[in-house]
Specification:
Blueprint (H helix, E strand, L loop, with lengths): L6 E2 L17 H8 L11 H4 L6 E6 L5 H12 L2 E3 L6 H5 L13 E2 L1 H6 L7 H27 L3 E4 L6 H9 L5 H15 L7 E6 L2 H11 L9 H19 L4 E6 L6 H9 L13 H12 L1 H6 L14
Parallel strand pairs: 2-5, 2-6, 3-5, 6-7
Antiparallel strand pairs: 1-4
Helix pairs in contact: 3-11, 6-8, 6-12, 7-8, 7-10, 9-10
Length: 316
Amino acid sequence: LLANSNFSCSRLSMHYGIASLSELFLYQIHSLNCCMMHTERLDGITKKLSVSSKIIVLDGNLAAGKTTLGRMLAEKMGLLYFEEASVPYWEKKSKERALPPPPFKGSCSLENFYADPKSPDGNSVRLQLLMFHTRLLQYSDALEHLLNTGQGVILDRSLYSDFVFVDTMHKSGFLEKHAVDYYYEARANSILAILPPHIVLYLDVPVPEIQHRLIQRGRPFEQNISDSYLQDIEDVYKSKFLPEMSLTSEVLQFDWSTFGDVDKVADCVNSVHLTKGPWLLQTDSSLHQLKMLVENKHRVANLMIISRVIPEVTVG
């Protein structure tokens, strides 16, 4: 779960709240001018890609140092940095800020989760589904940028590691099995349609140091997180996430207990030679189809729609 909060499960909007066209990349201006319509031509995407055209994801426990490293690494390597998703992407881009009236909005709050993770109102279920949805949309933006510009990106977490929190919450009794089953079905449906990151960077920090950094960070709702909860997060990362990602992505692990040398991390990333994963099998045609998908945010959002009903997220 994220460090920012007060989320709301609001409806989607296609209106972008853009302050200035100068804030956009050329491909984003093109999308607005064309009303999100796409031509069917193949535009030679592979010609735009270079050795630095990679999706890189930073992962690790709470307060592991992902944000600081991500920003410094992106600046050093000339990549675009995506901070950890903190608000629903559609709400962030939308001019229409008003929320639907109760009972349709299904409010979600991270503070409420930490205050009462077993709350009977379904907050924990909606919050985790919202976080996956947000990360899915953010990841689609990262893919869109890569495929349109050739510039590599660094993300602070992604939808691929989101299940770490689901498994931890389930073990702690915060999520029931029916909610976990719903989540994993929606996750599988979504991930099948996209490509995984080229590289995963995992920052390994022991739980006592994580607790120390949470205290230093000073966010009130993070001050009572138990050692066992943080240890469970670490355990799921190491026993499930890292082995799973190593099948399709290059995984680099760093001891970040005292922070590390950004230059050395950059050197490690630059020295990676991709030897596995679906990116090696892509053609201009397949990448064009992926580009068409990620440029259409309604199609991306609809990847989470499944034929399963659970009371926490169902109206009527």
